[in-house]
Specification:
Strand order of the largest sheet: 1-4-2-3
Strand content: 5-15%
Largest sheet: 4 strands, parallel
Mean pLDDT: 89
Distance between the termini: 10 Å
Radius of gyration: 16 Å
Low-confidence stretches: none
Helix content: 40-55%
């Protein structure tokens, strides 16, 4: 049976209006997973973090872009989105396991998961989630590629550090390459999730 309104991929929630908060609550969101670094979360706390209707989980993943900008770290940016995504996959086993542990908890009716831009750390989690649901690669890529058209242009203004322009995009080729990397390195999304410790029962709960 098709089940809608279960997962939402999002950017930062720091700018939510009162109407925006009401819209998310009306939509059914009862759980938020924040993938930002500690410094990002401290600089722009989630408005819904202390809402008594929401369970909030902070599961930091470092993308070496937004997390470095937030910490004012220079000269440590990945050379491409593909390199960044491969690094996220290889170095975030613990964080991704925690995220999918939360995803598999049936007490969570509608989960919103986000980072700052909603396309990199969140994009990797979304790709794994969609792959687990047997969504084809072309649809995963299409979902990912929407970000660069939906992100507010003001997000990239007044950045104190020079960052390669490509890192603020969601080029379809980057996700195509990343999915191929998962296949070649881990044998696919299902084996990758098993590798990080997600059980068959948890996978079934998510599906």
């Amino acid at each position: 049976t098709l089940q809608l309104r279960r997962f939402i991929r999002s950017g930062s929630l720091g700018g939510l209006t009162v109407c925006g908060i009401d819209a998310l609550l009306d939509y059914g969101v009862d759980c938020i997973v924040d993938l930002r670094s500690r410094s990002e979360a401290e600089k722009q706390p989630d408005i819904l973090k202390k809402n008594d209707k929401i369970k909030y989980f902070h599961v930091p993943m470092l993308d070496n872009i937004q997390s470095n900008i937030s910490s004012n770290i220079r000269d440590m940016f990945p050379e491409s989105l593909e390199v960044m995504y491969e690094g996220l996959l290889d170095n975030s086993f613990s964080a991704l396991k925690t995220v999918f542990d939360i995803f598999s908890d049936r007490q969570n009716e509608c989960i919103l998961f986000h980072c700052t831009a909603g396309k990199d750390r969140t994009g990797i989690a979304a790709a794994l989630l969609l792959g687990l649901a047997e969504v084809d690669d072309s649809t995963i890529v299409q979902d990912y590629s929407w970000s660069q058209y939906l992100l507010p242009k003001t997000m990239f203004e007044n950045i104190p550090i020079q960052v390669p322009k490509c890192l603020f995009e969601s080029n379809p080729a980057a996700m195509h390459t990343t999915l191929k990397y998962i296949d070649q390195t881990y044998g696919g999304i299902h084996p990758f999730l098993s590798r990080i410790g997600i059980t068959d029962e948890q996978k079934q709960n998510i599906r």
